Amino acid sequence: MVWTLRPQLADMVERMIKGAYQQSILPVEERELARMRIAQLNDCVACSGFRAPSVLEAGVAAELYENVADYPTYPGYTPRQRLAIEYAERFATDHASIADAFMDRMRELFTDAEILDLTLCVAVFLGLGRTLTVLGIDQSCAIDV
């Protein structure tokens, strides 16, 4: 595994991933929808197919992931879920579009602590997803979260 080349940094990566999965205050479905949108935008095979044991144990249904790309019009998502996906998409593709008006929309549904949580989770998913893709590590996630 590539992480053995830099064990000190592998520890950091593991802490980031575990932080996103084990210490997030967001409902697991919202976090997973944001993660999946990032996986789609990153074209990360490992990320798209990955389901953390903690997510499976929480009972997140496979159907949750089926309409992520169609989130603006898919009626099965809650307003918070839809906004979490949009935030992840903007963060990944046009972070400058996350201006005051958009943050006002976020604050209508999320607390400041939840916005920070979502931001850090999205940053982890985006950065590590792109890292896996660039390095050609696209078969599985080696960290059990």
Automatic annotation (TrEMBL):
Name the record gives this protein: Carboxymuconolactone decarboxylase family protein
A GO molecular-function annotation: peroxiredoxin activity
Signal peptide span: none
Matches recorded under Gene3D superfamilies: AhpD-like
Domain named Carboxymuconolactone decarboxylase-like: residues: 7-89
Top-rank taxon: Bacteria
Species, as recorded: Mycobacterium xenopi 4042
Parts of the chain that traverse the membrane: none
Pfam (any one): CMD
